[in-house]
């Protein structure tokens, strides 16, 4: 059996950079997906890989045929993998599937592959939640005829949808379930903030966990940051359009190209650009009440991570 590593990079934790720049191109990785511009379902490497992974990752509420999965692994997948390669898959959506489904995935993966690893990057909720909100604005820029949604309203909607504030950024559940199922040595937890402040140290840590050449990882990732945030001028323009009746009417009848041009929005291969001189990346100022609310929801889980994984969360101002 060959070890399989699953990366469930949560949204807004540098996942796309690892997927597109590192995992997809490192010679020591046999990458099953998520593959940029793949024509196959779930952006898998091939149709048969998708069929193989579906009962292990995405339809865990249904029974699966262990013998059939083992046969595909032995007869089809492993012969494609070079002796010095490790098998890896990365899908950020798996960090939002819920604890019960995730646990079934861990059990099935271990059942089929024998040894499995889980790689996770987490991020301080105080900065991640505003980033998720800005991603929401970016992703919905074609639907700006609707009322402009503030951060507070968006957060309230997410709480109602997911069943609570903590559920929006829950990471402890996945980490704890993985440790209990795979063993602590097979679970690697890394911090997005280190990726921002000390990228080489962060990338070396991931390389060590995956047992691949760190110099290649660093070279592949150099200068590659995808999905940068919207700029201040763009968010201001979005809000202005949506608070004006005429603006909403004009927006509704405009083409997609004209809509993008009207707010200075240019999306080049996932990179956000602005045509406004000295424009700054958009940011959200959290009120003291909101900071307290998020901190209270995150404290217990963060303390658990410190006590059980010795993560230096205090260095990056995680609520403790």
Can you characterise this structure?
Pfam families: Sulfotransfer_1. GO terms for molecular function: sulfotransferase activity. This is Sulfotransferase domain-containing protein. Residues 8-235 form the Sulfotransferase domain. The chain has 320 residues and is of the alpha/beta class. The chain has two domains: 4-128 and 169-221, Rossmann fold; 130-149 and 228-273, no CATH class. The chain is 50% helix and 10% strand. The protein contains 14 helices and seven strands. The strands form two sheets. It has a five-stranded parallel sheet with strand order 2-3-1-4-5, sandwiched between helices. It has a two-stranded antiparallel sheet with strand order 6-7. A hairpin with a 2-residue loop joins strand 6 (266-268) and strand 7 (271-273). Helix 1 crosses helix 10 and helix 9 crosses helix 10. The two termini are 41 Å apart.
Class computed from helices, strands and strand pairing = alpha/beta
Can you give the mean pLDDT? 90
Low-confidence stretches: none
CATH architecture heading of the largest domain: 3-Layer(aba) Sandwich
User: How many domain regions?
Assistant: 2
Rg over CA atoms, rounded to whole Å, is 21 Å
As a percent range, the share of strand residues is 5-15%
Helix share of residues? 40-55%
Tell me the total number of β-strands.
7
Q: Quickly name the level 1 CATH class of the largest domain.
A: Alpha Beta
Anisotropy-based shape: globular
Strand order, main sheet: write it out. Answer: 2-3-1-4-5
**Main beta sheet, described?**
5 strands, parallel
Number of helices: 14
**What is the third-level CATH name, the topology of the largest domain?**
Rossmann fold
Order of helices and strands: EHEHHEHEHHHEHHHHHHEEH
Distance between the termini: 41 Å
Protein name: Sulfotransferase domain-containing protein
InterPro entries: P-loop_NTPase, Sulfotransferase_dom
GO molecular function: sulfotransferase activity
Pfam families: Sulfotransfer_1
């Amino acid at each position: 059996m060959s070890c399989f590593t699953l990366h469930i990079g949560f949204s807004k934790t540098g996942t796309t950079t690892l997927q597109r720049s590192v995992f997809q191109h490192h010679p020591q990785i046999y990458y099953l997906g998520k593959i940029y511009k793949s024509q196959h379902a779930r952006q898998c490497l091939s149709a048969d890989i998708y069929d193989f992974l579906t009962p292990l990752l995405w339809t865990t509420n249904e029974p699966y045929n262990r013998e059939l999965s083992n046969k595909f692994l032995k007869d089809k997948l492993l012969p494609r993998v070079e002796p010095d390669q490790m098998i890896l898959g990365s899908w950020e959506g798996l960090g939002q599937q819920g604890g019960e489904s995730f646990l079934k995935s861990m059990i099935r993966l271990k059942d089929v592959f024998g040894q499995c690893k889980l790689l996770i990057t987490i991020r301080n909720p105080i900065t991640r939640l505003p980033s998720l909100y800005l991603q929401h604005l970016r992703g919905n820029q074609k639907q700006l005829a609707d009322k402009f949604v503030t951060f507070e309203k968006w957060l309230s909607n997410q709480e109602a949808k997911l069943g609570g504030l903590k559920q929006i950024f829950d990471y402890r559940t996945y980490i704890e379930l993985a440790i209990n199922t795979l063993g602590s040595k097979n679970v690697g937890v890394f911090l997005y903030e280190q990726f921002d402040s000390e990228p080489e140290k962060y990338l070396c840590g991931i390389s060590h966990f995956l047992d691949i050449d760190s110099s290649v990882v660093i070279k592949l990732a150099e200068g590659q940051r995808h999905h940068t945030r919207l700029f201040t001028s763009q968010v201001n323009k979005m809000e202005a359009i949506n608070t004006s009746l005429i603006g909403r009417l004009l927006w509704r009848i405009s083409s997609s190209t004209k809509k993008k041009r009207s707010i200075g929005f240019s999306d080049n291969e996932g990179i956000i650009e602005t045509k406004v001189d000295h424009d700054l990346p958009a940011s959200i100022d959290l009120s003291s009440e909101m900071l307290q609310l998020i901190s209270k929801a995150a404290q217990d889980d963060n303390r658990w991570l410190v006590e059980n994984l010795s993560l230096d969360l205090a260095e990056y101002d995680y609520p403790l």
